[in-house]
Amino acid sequence: AVVSTQSTGGDVYRSQLDTWQPRPPTPSAPITVLTRQTIKLHEALVSVLQPDEIQTVFKGVFCLFRKYFEEQLTKHGLMNCGSNPKRHGIVGAELSHYIDNVSFLEFVGDTDDIFHDIGTR
Predict the structure, then answer these.
(1) How far apart are CA 24 and CA 70, in angstroms?
(2) Torsional sign, CA 86, 87, 91, 95
(3) What are the pLDDT digits (tens) for 80-113?
């Protein structure tokens, strides 16, 4: 059975992103922690799950990241503000750090379809 991403990642993502602020330095401590936790989760699962199961888990993990990050964008007035929030320098740097470090992980699938329009819907 595939691990529930809600239980494996939800609390960690929510608690880390609740403290996130759109200000220097980048990457921020919460984004750095989440990047490390995502990589550790991958390391733990890659030897016990099939590739399609890993892809399913990480789609859920990335959707949780997106959900909680967008909550912070809304909180800080950066969501749907007439332009793409990724163009806000700090937001773009934070997202780039996370995506660049997790998108190379084996079997996680395409991250572009999840993150390409973050903050605009």
Answers:
(1) 18
(2) positive
(3) 655 555 557 888 899 999 999 999 899 888 888 8
Which positions ≥6 away from 111 have C-beta within 8 Å? 62, 99, 102, 103
Is residue 93 classed as helix, strand or coil in its secondary structure? helix
| Residue-wise pLDDT tens digits, 19-46 | 999 989 999 999 999 999 999 999 999 9
Look at the block and give the residue holding tokens 């990589």. Answer: 39
- Quote the DSSP letter at residue 85: G
User: Which tokens is 27 given?
Assistant: 């990457």
Whole-prediction pTM value? 0.85
Four-point Cα dihedral 19, 22, 26, 32, nearest 10: 30
- As a whole number of angstroms, the distance between CA 76 and CA 58 comes to 27
Residue with tokens 């379809």: 113
